[in-house]
Amino acid sequence: MRDRGYYTIGEVIISQSPFVAVPNVYEESPESKCEWCFSSSNIKACSACHAVWYCSTTCQNFPTTDTDNSKLVEALGSHMSDVDQKQLVNYTQMAALVNAILQWPASEINMKDIAENFSKLSCNSHTIIDSQLLAIGTGLYPVISLTNHSCVPNSVLLFEGRLAVIRAMEHMPKDTEVLTSYIDTAGSTVTRQKALKEKYFFTCSCPRCIKLGQPDDIRETAILEGYRCKDSCCDGFLLCGSDNKGFVCQKCGLVLSNKELSTITNELKCISDKASVSLSSGRKSEASVAYKRIEKLQLKLYHPFSISIMRTRETLLKISMELMDFKGAHSYCISVIQIYERVYPKCHPLLGLHYYLCGQIEMLMGEKKTTVESLKKAYNIFRITHGTKTPFTMELKTKLDEARAMASLGRMKIKS
Ligand SMILES: C[S@@+](CC[C@H](N)C(=O)[O-])C[C@H]1O[C@@H](n2cnc3c(N)ncnc32)[C@H](O)[C@@H]1O
């Protein structure tokens, strides 16, 4: 086929198997996973070391690829000179542990090299996520690692099993620099820059980041992470007053004093501690009540589109689903989507996932028309981010077709 010279929206730019990858094992769900394909079914411990697990002999034999990427891995940057003292100590301790486990002869061990490899892994490895965006492992992908970051990316990196796949999110000439996002881009410019500096040691100069400190950026930061006006009818945002006695609404001039602020924040802290204990000990109804109180308090303090309220509603959505309170879950899902639509690009996988969830809840609630609309929105995102041929997108398409058929059947019944 003739090279078109550009990538179409959703087209695969590159896909790559990992040079090395390991599955995640969580303390709360310690069941083992296949070391090769990350599956949790039919797994057996390796009879030689008893430390790793496999689902089949095929996986145990580590299917090899023809490409030797070791030179590329060697060339990856480690940022050793940027790493702070505390982290260096961590890497050295981890290197000592590797040394103790491998028991290589002293002549073959170079602790500095091992520590440098940890640093290299830290800024070049990727968290492997499944189609529902849950972290399932970590992998090093030498070519994918050459991709730089932007807070306004033109491409998206997702995984099909252990295979990393980058797809174009916009129509782009093939000589355009491929840019993905390394971090959650919902935060303010300061928050994003801090996260990038801490883990990847660079200052982003993408179109969003260069606006740092400009009036629009200050306003956006205040909405995302600052305080709102204490007059519930005013939608102004607050900035620290020149006398340091409180925060002043930039619209109506009302002052939120430091004392008022600390009363609410102390109450919030107290309920938040209780809420997370209830949640982690599985007392879901109690957690639901506590998180609803948190949401109420946060609405006094933060803008309705703030990151704090977004996080609380995400938790309330999860709890409502677990409690099978579908009406409640639907309302939280809608409110989370409203915030996502504001903080993420139109084609963000997290937005797609929440439209999908919304559609599934609406299907359960018998809301035929809105089910079709929500599933359609989810499909329009996933066909770009996940591709049309992946089992996840195909399953969604089947559900969308079923929902369309049900909706038109409903319309036919009404007519007759
Ligand atoms: C995964 S590597 C990306 C490939 C790297 N640029 C290279 O040539 O090997 C991550 C590192 O690339 C650099 N980097 C990534 N995105 C960048 C950006 N937008 N601006 C400046 N440096 C960036 C940082 O040094 C970061 O630690």
From TrEMBL:
InterPro entries: H3K4_H4K5_MeTrfase, SET_dom, SET_dom_sf, TPR-like_helical_dom_sf, Znf_MYND. SUPFAM superfamilies: HIT/MYND zinc finger-like (SSF144232), SET domain (SSF82199). One of its GO terms (molecular function) is zinc ion binding. One of its GO terms (cellular component) is nucleus. Keywords: Metal-binding, Zinc, Zinc-finger. Gene3D superfamilies: 6.10.140.2220, SET domain, Tetratricopeptide repeat domain. It holds the Pfam family zf-MYND. Residues 1-183 form the SET domain. This is SET domain-containing protein. It comes from Erythranthe guttata. The lineage of its organism: Eukaryota, Viridiplantae, Streptophyta, Embryophyta, Tracheophyta.
